[in-house]
Specification:
Elements lengths: L1 E7 L5 H13 L13 E6 L15 H13 L3 E6 L6 H8 L1 H7 L4 E3 L3 E5 L8 E5 H5 L2 E11 L3 E3 L1 H4 L8 H9 L3 H12 L6 E11 L7 E11 L2 H11 L8 H9 L9 E5 L2 H4 L16 H17 L6
Parallel strand pairs: 1-11, 2-3, 2-7, 3-4, 7-9
Antiparallel strand pairs: 1-10, 5-6, 7-8, 9-10
Helix pairs in contact: 1-2, 2-4, 8-10
Length: 317
């Protein structure tokens, strides 16, 4: 049985979040089980797009603050990195408040711009992926995801957040290549998530996003933090919590088909709160419509990304 912790956290009040993060981690063995003094720790939040944290499109800065505080206490050397779908790390982190948290702890913010190959765990899906050197150079990778609805995949949590460890616009390319075959795209994301080294997953579901996620939906309090070593298991608990329709759980279904992780509740040892204590039965799920990037949009996005990362110029500003 795979242990997953579920903890009630009613607000983003700093004391409440610190207590919630501490409890969630302690229930699965405690942070010192994963991190030692001197470790280089890559913290991967959800930095999808430059929006206020109140919109629930990104990992809330208070959750990151609570985790970084404990990493610093342990003498670790954390770094915060991502490859945003829209914009770049500095701009997105500034908009959602994570840049302030990184500055508070003197933690570097890094863009994933150094692609290196990694073998695919399921060659029948893809033999090789590209991830970022930051991911492979870290002693510990901690995935700090956000629970949101997703119009293509049903919902996004720990598994989907790891797709951001693919640097540059390769993510958009696969959206374009497989965008009309959502189940195939889900298999690719699941395979990628289990092809890279990830040691710990923490899911911010204090305020989730319902309806038209992952960027344009509505904030919805779920009042929960979920933690575990297996991303599919963390997502399975989240899906149960929000009563997500089983047929629309594309990533969990892909994990089950590919025999990756523990995507079913009957293989999970839930610690802390129970599902009935925190369930949100009337969470509003999206109508799955698919999200396909047009060739023109992909080319424009690649060019803008090049101007930002190489020259520090954003053509839209």
């Amino acid at each position: 049985m795979i242990p997953v912790s579920l903890v009630r956290c009613p607000t983003y009040d700093p004391a409440a979040v610190q207590a919630g993060v501490d409890q969630a981690l302690e229930l699965i063995g405690g942070l010192p089980q994963f991190v030692r003094a001197g470790d280089r720790v890559l913290v991967k939040p959800n930095l999808l797009t430059a929006q206020s944290a109140d919109n629930a499109a990104t990992t809330h800065p208070q959750v990151l603050d609570a985790l970084l505080a404990r990493l610093i206490d342990l003498g670790a050397r954390p770094r915060v990195g991502d490859s945003p779908a829209f914009g770049w790390v500095a701009g997105v982190a500034a908009a959602c408040g994570i840049a302030d948290v990184a500055r508070k702890y003197d933690v570097p913010l890094v863009d994933f711009t150094q692609p290196v190959p990694v073998a695919g765990i399921r060659p029948e899906v893809r033999r090789q992926f590209m991830t970022d050197r930051e991911v492979l150079d870290a002693d510990v990778v901690i995935n700090v995801a956000k629970l949101k609805s997703h119009r293509q995949l049903g919902f996004t949590g720990a598994t989907k957040n790891l797709y951001g460890c693919m640097p540059g616009k390769r993510k958009a390319y696969f959206h374009f290549e497989r965008g009309n075959r959502d189940e195939d795209f889900a298999r690719l994301i699941a395979s990628f998530a289990y092809s890279i080294p990830v040691h710990l997953n923490l899911l911010d579901a204090v305020v989730a996003m319902e309806r038209d996620g992952p960027a344009g939906g509505d904030p919805r309090p779920v009042c929960a933090l979920i933690a575990g070593t297996d991303p599919a298991a963390v997502d399975a608990v989240a899906a149960a919590l929000i009563h997500h329709p089983p047929g629309d759980r594309l990533l969990l279904n892909a994990c089950r088909e590919l025999r990756l992780g523990s995507p079913q509740m009957d293989t999970i040892e839930l610690r802390g709160a129970s599902i009935p204590e925190l369930e949100v039965a009337d969470f509003i799920h999206p109508l799955l419509v698919g999200v396909r990037f047009s060739p023109g949009r992909l080319v424009r996005s690649v060019w803008r990304n090049h101007l930002i990362t190489r020259w520090g110029v954003d053509p839209r500003r």
